[in-house]
Amino acid sequence: MPELPEVETVARGVHERVSGDRIVQVWFSSQPQTFKTPPIQQADGLKGRTIVAVHRTGKHIVFELGPSSGNGLRAEVQEVRRRRSNAVSPEAQWIVHLGMTGRLLVTSPNSPVPSHTHARLDLASGKELRFVDPRRFGRLEYRDLQRDRAFHGPGAEPLTIGAQEFAALFHSTRMTIKAALLDQSLLAGVGNIYADESLFQAGIRPRRRSNRLTFAELDRLRVALQKVLEKAVRLGGSSVSNYVDADGERGLFQFQHYVYQRTGEPCRRCQTPIRRVVVAGRGTHYCPQCQN
DNA sequence: CATTTCACCTGGTGGC
DNA sequence: TGCCACCAGGTGAAAT
Questions:
Q1: Quick one: which of A82, A165, A80, A172 has its CA closest to A125?
Q2: Distance between CA A181 and CA A141 in Å, rounded?
Q3: N or C: which end of chain A has fewer CB within 10 A?
Q4: A138: which nucleotide lies closest, measuring CA to C1'?
Q5: What is the pLDDT of residues A78-93, one digit of tens each?
Q6: Nucleic strand C within 7 A of Cβ A192
Q7: How much is the mean pLDDT over chain A?
């Protein structure tokens, strides 16, 4: 499930492979719900633009796009070189949300096109960028910054938020702490795995009311969450089911899980069997001994 | 308004 | 072996 660490891994991989490149041709599938912006509008906007940079905001991958440039291979190559060396202020953004099963792949145009491919971007370098998403929970959006606001994500960034702001956010709602962690308008980037893992590390039960947690508990949670996310980023994310990064490599963090999908197995701290309940409509895993 | 529930999707799993 | 009910969970709309 792509959450912050998986999305970060994908964004870094894609950035390394396509920044400085130029989009020369675009193809989209005809699956309407994949497109937050109508596909024709996206194709018109993307074609000819240079990819200045690719980065993550919350669970979103943002492509910063430069102005579209003229035709001709020589001009394209020069354009690529120019944009590599100078920072260009972006004129547009392509925003990719992976949903549950979305993947961004950088491949040769000749490699077999997987089923459920919804976007194919031909790049000036000869590479092809593909968006593949079997369950179609992912979303593609285009913003023209002359007209639209730049994308900044729905909520605060979990990795950099400070103690005061974190406490203020979670003291502002009566939801369960699990539901609050999953609410992207509060913190952007936390999903089911890292919500469960950080609550375990902080020793907090998922059904506690967010606004009833003490400042000390919330700060334990913030520190635990940041440590868990940073470690997962270092390990390339968690590969549960079939998540892979831009190389097709699997992450390693799933071997570090303390509670997620360990129902009935002994707690790594106290040997008590891990319990599974449903909170906020999600499978939720916790240790009844270590979490209070 | 705040909060909770549910529909959207397909592939994988496990029971019979 | 084949069939099918069921589960996974990010998000936004609908219900409460």
A1: A80
A2: 25
A3: C
A4: C10
A5: 555 555 555 556 799 9
A6: yes
A7: 89
Number of Cβ within a 10 Å radius of residue A214: 10
Give the length of chain A.
Answer: 292
Residue with tokens 């004129």: A91
What is the distance between the alpha carbons of residues A205 and A84, in angstroms, rounded to a whole number?
48
Residue found by looking up tokens 């509060």 in the block? A186
Round to a whole number and report the distance in Å from the CA of A47 to the C1' of B16. Answer: 54
Judged on CB neighbours under 10 Å (0-12, 13-18, 19+), A173 is middle
User: Has A2 been annotated as catalytic?
Assistant: yes
Q: List the end-to-end C-alpha distance of chain A, in Å, as a whole number.
A: 27
Identify the residue whose tokens are 């959450």.
A3
pLDDT digits (tens, 9 = 90+) for A3-26: 999 999 999 999 999 999 999 999
Is the pLDDT score of A208 beyond 90?
yes
Distance CA A245, CA A15 (A): 12
Residue with tokens 């950099």: A160
